[in-house]
Write a structure and sequence with these properties.
Elements: E1 6-9, E2 15-20, E3 24-29, E4 38-42, E5 45-49, H1 66-76, H2 81-87, H3 94-103, H4 108-113, H5 115-128, H6 132-138, H7 143-151, H8 156-164, E6 165-166, H9 172-181, H10 185-190, E7 197-198, H11 199-207, H12 215-220, H13 227-250, H14 257-261, H15 266-293, H16 299-307, H17 316-319, E8 334-336, H18 340-350, H19 358-362, E9 367-371, E10 377-384, E11 387-394, H20 403-419
Parallel strand pairs: 6-7
Antiparallel strand pairs: 1-2, 2-3, 3-4, 4-5, 8-9, 9-10, 10-11
Helix pairs in contact: 5-7, 9-11, 13-15, 15-18
Length: about 425
């Protein structure tokens, strides 16, 4: 913490910091007019360093004593206010960017016009080991040429998109995500008409590419909410989207991207989901009834009967197949769904879409249980090595279970883990 160290201004306006960590370590940064050069001490000599000095303008004032705060404030105030404002959102390579503009004043114009682009170049330069002079030359090119160097695409739309992006903390992770995402022309085109683009939107598309061009993405990001809030919100939307895709295939429909992209809000998404659940479960109800009616038909006649049942038994080959057994096993009130017939019956009884999960269960990607008490619920469990996760837990009609039911399920998982 800097309040345990010493920060002061030198005679020439440089900021001198002495770190007390068992033995004194000193570094200094020359002022803005002297190019923000960064020096460290070695054997009583000041050595020029090319390394980034770390976050520069984002220091917490609470970490300073009053004299130190005054020294830092005087030093920082030498940097022109528009430049400080332009770099304030970057926590990664901020000092390198400031130092470059201090040493090459002609770059001030592009920094104020396109701070994100300048930051991306500085970050890229760190990985590519470019010299400061090479970075300065690149930043004097046309912006379309600069983005071509970074992303391999020469595009005015990309230039506009880079300017629209609202970073959350300007971290190295955000830089790496942008470097990957902005090489995709679908991403560039998708945000063409957005006034601003949150990093949250890019993170969502990175995890769920089918949200590209989705009106839901445009309408449902809440700007004044945290990134965690938005990601959890879209995780729920994603779960519904996944269910819709499964129902779509189970109903033997041709994939129509326009159906998904036209959904404007969560209410419309839920309405479409519920409509298809009803249609699917009605189909399953008829199929199971037809199968039951044919139980007594001799096997050599059954195929002909199936062919004449107007596709009610489309998935007949799955009906008698058992799913892999879950290591958790069964309890009196926590019972694994064993086959496709039971799965369809669970979906019909609970009025949700679990009946469309056959392929997932056959591939052992998850297991489905029915919880009988304290509430009747359906549970999806995934096991990866020693990690057990409950990915879905729903009452009838996809309603949320009570705290008592959550506590009961946690206890079941805990008891299993303690036994193993």
């Amino acid at each position: 913490m800097l309040d345990q160290n010493r920060v002061e201004l030198g005679d020439s306006g440089e900021l001198v910091v002495t770190l007390r960590s068992g033995y004194d370590t000193q570094f200094k940064i020359t002022n803005w007019s002297d190019g923000l050069q960064f020096f460290t001490v070695e054997e009583d000599r000041w050595l020029l360093e090319e390394e980034d000095a770390g976050i520069f303008l984002a220091s917490d004032e609470d970490n300073y004593g009053s004299e130190q705060r005054d020294a830092v404030e005087l030093f920082v105030n030498e940097i022109p206010l528009p430049i400080r404002q332009a770099v304030s959102c970057f926590s990664y390579k901020q000092f390198s960017l400031l130092r470059l503009v201090a040493q090459y004043p002609k770059l001030e114009a592009i920094l104020l016009r396109s701070p994100n682009l300048c930051w991306l170049v500085i970050c890229f330069a760190g990985y590519a080991n470019w010299s400061a002079s090479k970075v300065a030359k690149i930043l004097q090119l046309k912006r379309a040429n600069i983005v071509e160097i970074l992303f391999g695409i020469k595009s005015k739309r990309l230039v506009k998109l880079v300017n629209k992006i609202k970073l959350i903390n300007g971290s190295e992770g955000e830089y790496l995500l942008l470097l990957k995402m902005l090489k995709d022309t679908r991403v560039i085109n998708a945000f063409n008409h957005w006034k601003s683009v949150s990093m949250i939107a890019l993170r969502i598309i990175h995890k769920r590419p089918y949200f590209i061009n989705s009106k839901l993405l445009l309408n449902e990001i809440i700007a004044d909410k945290s990134i965690q809030h938005n990601l959890i919100r879209f995780a729920n939307f994603s779960e519904t989207y996944d269910d819709l895709h499964r129902l779509h295939r189970a109903l033997d429909k041709t994939f129509e991207p326009k159906v998904w992209l036209a959904i404007k809000d969560s209410q419309k998404l839920t309405q479409l989901h519920d409509k298809w659940v009803t249609r699917f479960n009605n189909s399953e109800r008829g199929r199971l009834a037809a199968l039951e009616a044919m139980r007594d038909i001799p096997p050599f006649l059954r195929r002909n009967a199936i062919d004449n049942t107007e596709n009610l038994l489309i998935n007949d080959e799955l009906l008698e197949v058992d799913f892999p057994i879950c290591p958790i096993g069964n309890l009196p009130t926590f019972i694994q769904i064993k086959n496709c017939t039971e799965l369809s019956e669970e979906g019909i009884f609970m009025n949700h879409c679990v009946g469309s999960y056959s392929r997932i269960l056959l591939e052992e990607r998850s297991y489905i249980y029915k919880l009988l008490s304290p509430e009747r619920a359906t549970v999806e469990v995934k096991i990866r090595g020693e990690k057990i996760s409950v990915t879905q837990f729903k009452l009838a009609n996809n309603k949320k279970p009570s705290p008592e039911s959550y506590a009961c399920l946690r206890q079941i998982i805990t008891d299993f883990q303690s036994r193993n």
